[in-house]
Structures are given as structure tokens and as C-alpha cells.
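Exercise: predict the fold of this chain.
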Amino acid sequence: MTSKQRTELKSQAMKLDSIFQIGKSSLTPQSIEAIRAALKARELIKINVLKNCDDDTNELAKLIAERTGAEVVQVIGKKIILYKQNMQKLEKRRLAEKRAEKKKEAAKRKAKEVKRGTKSEWTRADSMRKKNQVKKNK
């Protein structure tokens, strides 16, 4: 992960609330599975380590990242920020970006046609109406 990516993720994480709390029982297999599921759904999560947890926050962050396949973005005091890229979401984002780009290009082409004075959809529709009227009158 590059420093720019890490910075962007940190700024996104500032807006997030902690969705997990690690307490006295530290890490359990159930908590790891829940964190794994949350990473799949959200990609970026914030975990709060409670004061009654005896484990070191940095060590917990490394352990969670190792077990879930995530990357530690940042550890601040008793807060851990983790990121794991979801390939399905990435593909959906790319497709959405392509669709948006195609819409922009189509709008630009249409604007150029109107600007150049070529027939727009309205003038084409008008000419078709006129042709139909001429045929009816004959």
C-alpha cells in the first residue's frame, strides 16, 4: 500500500465509527470471523480496543491483519483501522466508472452535434412528422 493510499484511507476512516470492540476476552475465533465478514462488506473498518484488554494494541492489529488477510492502515491509541480490498466491489466500481464515462462522452457528442447545427433528435422527429403528413395528404 502506498503512502497516498494510506493517507486517503486514513481520511475516510476519520468519518467511521468503531464497529467492533475488543475487550477482556481479547480475540476469539468468532470475533475474527465477524471482522472478516465486516471487511468483506465494508473494506475499511475501525476497531476499538477497550481499556480492560491486557494485550498490546499494535500486536492485536498485526494479529487481526494476519488472520483476516487485511492491512493495518493505522493504530492510534486504542483504535485500529484495517483495510481489505474486495475484488467484487472493485469490479463493480470499474464498471460503474466505465458507464459514467460513456454517458459523458455521449452527452459531449450530442452537444457538439447541436452546436454544429446538425440535425438533433428534435429536428429528426419534426422531419419524420412532416413526411408522414405529406404521405397522408396524398
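Check your answer against the key: The first helix runs from residue 3 to 14.
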